[in-house]
Structure formats: structure tokens, C-alpha cells
Design brief:
By secondary structure, the protein is mostly helical. It has seven helices and no strands. Helix 2 crosses helix 3 (35-50), helix 3 (35-50) crosses helix 4 and helix 4 packs antiparallel against helix 5 (69-89).
């Protein structure tokens, strides 16, 4: 199986063809076994192998029709634009820039997933947020009017607070909602 996977071929062409086929024959519409599906896939493969203008010129000649000047100009412009984009994206400095953007995007995703700011009591007022607790303790030590609990904490002012170590009632769920 490993030797089967180590072929010398590039898989980007396969991905590009699959994407192009999915664009003209979306999976939300059933084209299974129809001539329409065969025609659509044939056009995609022909354009990929011969180029946009060359394929349609060949197709029109094979059918015996003459391509209009407007269609001919449109296909030439579209093919030229595609070739310019391909040559631009093959430049070394463009590849480096794209690589940096991809690395930055991956780093941003990693930072978002490992962000420690989300946790207990996120939606509560500032004095319950773990990061802000130290700041409020420092500020409250400067303010003599700040109420203190008997346990010495400035985070709360009464021993009935659920985080107070002197609180004997720990508010555990006992089955009766009235006692919460």
C-alpha cells in the first residue's frame, strides 16, 4: 500500500479537476448516468488538456459551426487571464508571501484554540474574572472604603459568598431547588 501511495504524479491536478467538475455538476443535483454529466465532464477535461480557446475552437470545427468574433475574443481573454494568474502564482516571492499568510492563519487558529481567557465565570462582572482578580485586589488595597470579608478577601464582602472559605454551606445540589 505504501508503494502505491508514493507515485511520482502530482495530486494538485486531480484536486483541480475534481473542483472544476463539482463546479459544473454540483452534488446537490443528481446527474447520475445522464448524458448531461458526461458532456459536462468532457468539457472540463477538454479545457484542462487543450486550453479554453483551443478546445472550443476544435469543438466548433468538429460540429461544423463557425465561432462568433465575440465568443472568440471572450475565450481568448479568459484563457490569457488564466495563464497570467498561473505564471504570477508560480513566482518565488508570491509563493513566499502565500506561505507566510498560511503560517499566520495556522498560528491564529492555534492561538484561538489554546486561549486561556475562556473559562469559569466569563460572563460575570469583572471582580469574578480570574485575570482581573489580582488587579481588583491591588486596587482595593489602595481604597480603604473597600469592604472586606472576615476571611480577609476583598473579592467578596460576606461569608455567605460561595467562594468564601468560611462559608459552611457549600450550596451543593441536594435534589430540592428551594434550598439552592
Amino acid at each position: 500500500m505504501m508503494t502505491y501511495c508514493t507515485h511520482p504524479h502530482d495530486t494538485q491536478t486531480n484536486e483541480a479537476l475534481n473542483q472544476a467538475i463539482a463546479n459544473v455538476a454540483p452534488k446537490s443535483v443528481c446527474y447520475s448516468g445522464t448524458n448531461s454529466l458526461n458532456s459536462r465532464i468532457g468539457i472540463i477535461i477538454g479545457v484542462h488538456n487543450m486550453g479554453l480557446y483551443s478546445f472550443f475552437d476544435y469543438l466548433f470545427n468538429a460540429v461544423g459551426m463557425k465561432m462568433t468574433e465575440v465568443l472568440s475574443d471572450f475565450l481568448k481573454r479568459k484563457q490569457h487571464k488564466k495563464e497570467r494568474k498561473k505564471s504570477y502564482q508560480e513566482q518565488f516571492n508570491v509563493k513566499v508571501c502565500r506561505s507566510k499568510k498560511q503560517k499566520k492563519a495556522l498560528q491564529d487558529i492555534y492561538n484561538e484554540r489554546t486561549d486561556a481567557s475562556y473559562g469559569h465565570a466569563v460572563g460575570l462582572p469583572v471582580n469574578n474574572n480570574k485575570r482581573k482578580r489580582k488587579e481588583t485586589i491591588v486596587e482595593s488595597s489602595l481604597n480603604p472604603k473597600q469592604k472586606k470579608c472576615k476571611c480577609g478577601s476583598t473579592e467578596h464582602s460576606r461569608i455567605t459568598h460561595k467562594y468564601c472559605p468560611l462559608n459552611k454551606k457549600k450550596y451543593k445540589y441536594s435534589g430540592n431547588r428551594d434550598k439552592l
